[in-house]
Design the sequence.
């Protein structure tokens, strides 16, 4: 008899069959439930919710009785946490310390340690506070820790150095820091240079309302500098007012002028250019400052195709070149149809940059445009077997089949059971069943810090097995394992997406690609702009689409997908069935994309490369790539990018 293999292979047909049987979501109970029926585990979940409620309401008898019925339940420690958060005083110190020791470094730890430290600080328990504090802690607790150590004999030198680090924040510090800042100041720690450094942080990347306070700490003769920084933060055109340049501190005046010019170029190009020409000979700009100004001017002027953009690109020194500048240098040459110049730029790049996918592709395009077909074909050939946007474009130009370069994710049974039995995995799984997603992700993020790369791969497999697709995708990305295509591009919510796409008259693969890019199939995803759910719908957009702006309903997959696919269909219709422009509009907005359309027909790959917003530019490339992958996973062999290379983009009359 042959030995049975102890390798589980991630088979796409096998997994997809599971997905279809489970309505698009995969589920598997953790190993701990092998001795426990699913019905009993479900009963424990209900008991857990009741016990948690009893603990929060102080119903101790009920709580203790329920606790006895939860032996072995993964979330039982959270009940103890709930109870200790309410009674964690010195009388219960032994229980608190035992809990903190048992769960040190886990999410359970800091949820108890923070209120415990706050309690110890309020009671003046310095020795206990020092014993139980763990770095980095909150800023409040860091200040309290330094204060406690100082009162317990911390020497002046280490004390001042520790407060130095606290001081260097561009935001207001909590009141708990006041005692150590007062003593630090009395010991001479708050020098004029330290005040200036913090003022710079507040002006350039922090809270500008802090600037007047810090200005008052400067010597009288320097206070105009703080006032000038504050003025420029809100009105960068103030650098045109020569009254601010008193000549007392020329290097600092040059610093403020650099900051102002970099802001002003985005608000008013003409004033910025005029101000620079006025200041360049009167202020001692350093080489670094001149490079910063040149970079910002080059990018900002390129955005509006300003005639001086090319001049400023030439002023960016080679050592200051970065992705941002190079992207716009590429865009300038494309807009000018200057492929000889573009070829020269690419060939002059450092090898590490030159070998990037983008530059290899555009070197091929340059060779093609210059009539060097053999050189272009070789470059396309090198790219065409790779699974990315430029690889798909290259394959389309060669009219050759695309290879997904899939790799089956191999996980041993032993590894799978080891990871599956990890306490954080058990707790994350139970939180998923209780639909407490924040807690589940907190446990999962902690888990990943405890695992090596191979174990993280197993964890990604496990998350995919549960149907927790966003975490499976994110985990594989963290370890750079990109070839497990079946896990990275799941057919999640396929039934919902398929029905909604059909109703909206759009391709299902397009909707899948948009959803994959927007949320990685996280149904409760939200952005800083307020977008919600699988397809990241703004409440304002939802109101326009169906008159309801309630954001909570946007976490409902059916509602979200219905609105998202309908919106895609509308955008596609408004762009005369051009799904590429609709894709850009889904990210940047319809009217903004209309502004980007060229007056003369432009090849689609060139237009995409010159999209002004880097976020939208990358978004379009990603969605096109994902759409092609989903087409192939669905059994379609055609290359969507053949349509892209034949497409011309132009504004309508």
Sequence:
């Amino acid at each position: 008899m042959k030995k049975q293999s102890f390798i589980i292979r991630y088979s796409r047909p096998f997994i997809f069959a599971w997905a279809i049987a489970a309505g698009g979501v995969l589920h598997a109970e953790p190993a701990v439930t092998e001795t426990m029926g699913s019905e009993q585990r479900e009963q424990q979940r209900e008991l857990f919710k009741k016990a948690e409620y009893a603990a929060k309401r102080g119903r101790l008898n009920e709580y203790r009785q329920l606790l006895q019925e939860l032996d072995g339940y993964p979330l039982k420690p959270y009940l103890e946490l709930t109870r200790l958060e309410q009674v964690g005083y010195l009388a219960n110190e032994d229980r608190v310390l035992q809990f903190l020791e048992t769960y040190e470094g886990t999410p359970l730890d800091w949820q108890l340690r923070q209120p415990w430290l706050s309690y110890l600080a309020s009671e003046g328990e310095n020795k206990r506070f020092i014993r139980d504090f763990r770095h980095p802690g909150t800023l409040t607790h860091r200040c309290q820790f330094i204060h406690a150590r100082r009162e317990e004999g911390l020497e002046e030198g280490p004390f001042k150095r520790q407060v130095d680090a606290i001081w260097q924040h561009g935001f207001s510090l909590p009141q708990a820091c006041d005692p150590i800042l007062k003593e630090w100041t009395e010991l001479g720690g708050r020098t004029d240079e330290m005040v200036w450094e913090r003022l710079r942080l507040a002006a350039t990347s922090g809270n500008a309302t802090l600037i007047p306070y810090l200005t008052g700490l400067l010597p009288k003769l320097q206070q105009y500098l703080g006032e000038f920084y504050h003025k420029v933060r809100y009105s960068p055109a103030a650098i045109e007012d020569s009254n601010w340049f008193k000549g007392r501190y020329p290097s600092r005046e040059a610093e403020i002028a650099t900051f102002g010019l970099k802001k002003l170029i985005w608000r008013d190009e003409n004033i910025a250019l005029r101000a620079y020409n006025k200041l360049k000979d009167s202020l001692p700009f350093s080489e670094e400052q001149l490079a910063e100004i040149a970079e910002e001017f080059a990018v900002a002027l390129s955005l509006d195709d300003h005639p001086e953009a090319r001049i400023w690109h030439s002023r960016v020194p080679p050592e200051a070149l970065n992705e941002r500048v190079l992207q716009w240098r590429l865009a300038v040459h494309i807009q000018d149809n200057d492929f000889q110049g573009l070829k020269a730029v690419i060939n002059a790049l450092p090898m590490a940059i030159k070998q990037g996918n983008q530059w290899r592709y555009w070197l091929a395009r340059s060779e093609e445009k210059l009539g060097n077909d053999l050189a272009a074909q070789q470059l396309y050939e090198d790219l065409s077997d790779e699974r990315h946007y430029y690889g798909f474009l290259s394959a389309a130009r060669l009219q050759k089949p695309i290879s997904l370069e899939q790799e089956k994710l191999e996980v041993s049974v032993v590894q799978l059971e080891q990871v599956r039995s990890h306490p954080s995995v058990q707790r994350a799984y139970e939180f998923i069943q209780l639909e407490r997603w924040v807690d589940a992700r907190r446990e999962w993020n902690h888990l990943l810090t405890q695992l090596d790369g191979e174990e993280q791969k197993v964890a990604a497999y496990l998350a995919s097995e549960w149907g927790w697709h966003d975490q499976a995708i994110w985990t594989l990305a963290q370890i750079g394992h990109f070839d497990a295509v079946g896990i990275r591009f799941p057919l999640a919510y396929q039934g919902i997406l398929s029905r909604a796409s059909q109703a909206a008259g759009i391709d299902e693969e397009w909707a899948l690609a948009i959803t994959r890019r927007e949320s990685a199939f996280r149904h409760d995803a939200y952005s800083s702009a307020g977008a919600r759910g699988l397809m990241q719908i703004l409440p304002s957009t939802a109101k326009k689409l169906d008159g309801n702006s309630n954001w909570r309903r946007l976490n409902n997959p059916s509602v979200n997908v219905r609105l998202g696919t309908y919106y895609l269909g509308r955008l596609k219709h408004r762009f005369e069935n051009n799904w590429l422009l609709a894709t850009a509009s889904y990210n940047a907005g319809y009217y903004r994309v209309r502004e980007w359309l060229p007056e003369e027909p432009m090849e689609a790959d060139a237009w995409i490369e010159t999209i002004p917003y880097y976020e939208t530019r990358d978004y379009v490339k990603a969605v096109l790539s994902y759409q092609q992958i989903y087409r192939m996973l669905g059994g379609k062999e055609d290359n969507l990018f053949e349509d892209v290379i034949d497409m011309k983009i132009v504004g309508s009359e």
